[in-house]
Amino acid sequence: MKLWGGRFAKETDTLTDHFNSSISFDARLYKQDILGSIAHVSMLAKQNIIPADDSKLIEKGLLDLLTDIEKGMITFNEKMEDIHMNIEALLIQRIGDVAKKMHTGRSRNDQVALDVRMYVRDEVDDLKALLLNLMTALVAISKEHTSTIMPGYTHLQRAQPITFSHHLLAYFEMFKRDYSRLNFTYDMTNSLPLGSGALATTTYPLDRDFVAEALHFNSVCENSLDGVSDRDFCLDLLHTISVLMMHLSRFSEEIILWSSHEFRFVELDDAYSTGSSIMPQKKNPDIAELVRGKTGRVYGNLMSLLTTMKGLPLAYNKDMQEDKERIFDSIDTIKMCLPIFTEMIKTMKIRKENMYKAAAGGFTNATDAADYLVKKGLAFRDAHEVIGKLVLHCVTENTSLEELSLDVYQAIHPIFDQDIYEAISLATCVNERKVKGGPSTQAILAHLEKAKAFLAHSK
After folding, report:
1. Which long-range contacts (CB under 8 A, 24 or more apart) does 120-123 make?
2. Which CATH superfamily is domain 5-104 in?
3. Rounded CA separation 241/262 (Å)
4. Collapsing DSSP states into helix, strand and coil, what is residue 63?
């Protein structure tokens, strides 16, 4: 008989048991469920709702059960539906009817809300640590490439010369925002729902603040209906992971391009590449491609839970059981992606010479040539037209701005002088961009100091 079976005249059908059960996936909440129950029974004893001796016996039984679960000695029962009923049933088997007092003053509705919030908090802490490892790797690589010149792109066309450090630190800033979103998610999660009951609290004199302090929550949910039906924190988590995966996917796309024969900017380590079953020459960026591909499943989890929640009346509905598989899958996915992505970029070989060669082609210094004319007194729009004509000449003659003679420059406009060659050298183009946030070595070193300070503060 189910623990809730008093109302029912017969057992549920086997198909119903299987369809209704969540133990196959919510078993991972066992630790949170047990710790939450310990805090709850401690409060019940403090409030003289149950005897102190009963509370101590229940607490010891729960701790022993936790130990046995973590040793792999426990098998959960699908007929008990979920982790909450399994824990209670197992405890009753071990310590007898006193265990039945554990559920006094609470419902599975506020119990599961508590477990999921505790689980999300723990996982957010893990994700923050993994993300900081990736950001630390980016800073370390960036320190080695403050003078490594590469082309910057718009529309995937070579645009202006930058440094490899400048490119990497753009992703550092993305990940820094992801880190902030993780902190926000933690804060939105960190409110205690226990005490909300099924939907309308209870007639027992619960001390919710005591439980909140015991479980390290910084507040309690102020409305019991909201306490059991809120899954915004799950959506916050899924949104945060989705944005983080989007950033990893963009980075992966660039690594895939850079490792191609057409770019040859980087070479991935053999440990993070795969081969072809038919083409012996192939070295495929499968890790980056899988990260890019797995982003879609995370997006799907976010949209799935948004769709589940959009039509639910207050308060708890069984539909909400769908939240856990969505967050579990997204957490598992991002926790798989972050470590291997970090190791992939730490071990990849940077081909500086190919980056420089690419920056030297494609007229990435054309804007600097126009700026040269502006500094000589021309209006920018006129300078733009002059350089456009020079670029057209170079394209026609299959040459570059650096290779043009001064006579050709002066035939287009007499204002050109010998100093044009220094003005359009790639080193000048990069290092004269000293504006805060720019690609010059000076600006990058300042950015790196801020990045290192952020990492030091965050750890």
Report:
1. 120/185, 120/189, 120/233, 120/234, 120/237, 120/327, 121/186, 121/189, 121/190, 122/32, 123/237, 123/331, 123/335
2. Fumarase/aspartase (N-terminal domain) (1.10.275.10)
3. 32
4. helix
Helix (H), strand (E) at residue 44 = helix 30-46
Q: Could you tell me the sign of the dihedral formed by the alpha carbons of 198, 203, 204, 210, in that order?
A: positive
Find the catalytic residue in 216, 252, 276, 440: 276
The catalytic residue among 155, 261, 405, 457 is 155
Q: Give the per-residue pLDDT at 163.
A: 98
CA 245, CA 295: separation in Å to the nearest integer?
5
Rg (CA), the chain: 31
- 8 Å CB contact between 420 and 390: no
Note the CATH architecture for domain 109-203+216-357. Up-down Bundle (1.20)
Is 155 catalytic? The answer is: yes
Q: Tell if the pTM clears 0.85, that is, is over it.
A: yes
Average pLDDT, the chain: 95
Tokens at residue 158, please? 């070579």
Residues 321 and 326: their CA atoms lie apart, in Å, by 10
Give the tens place of pLDDT for each residue, 5-27.
666 667 767 777 777 788 999 99
Q: Which two tokens stand for residue 294?
A: 């797995």
Q: Does the pLDDT at position 195 exceed 80?
A: yes
Spatial distance between the Cα atoms of 346 and 355, rounded to a whole number of angstroms: 18
Domain ranges of the chain: 5-104, 109-203+216-357, 361-458
pLDDT, tens digit, 9 for 90 and up, residues 52-68 = 999 999 999 999 999 99
Task: Give backbone dihedrals phi and psi of 91, rounded to 5 degrees, phi first.
Answer: -70, -40
Q: Which CATH class is domain 361-458?
A: mainly alpha
List pLDDT tens digits, range 257-275. Answer: 999 999 999 999 999 999 8
Q: Check pLDDT > 60 for residue 166.
A: yes
pLDDT band at 287 (very low <50, low <70, confident <90, very high): very high
How are beta strands 266-267 and 219-220 bridged, if at all?
unpaired
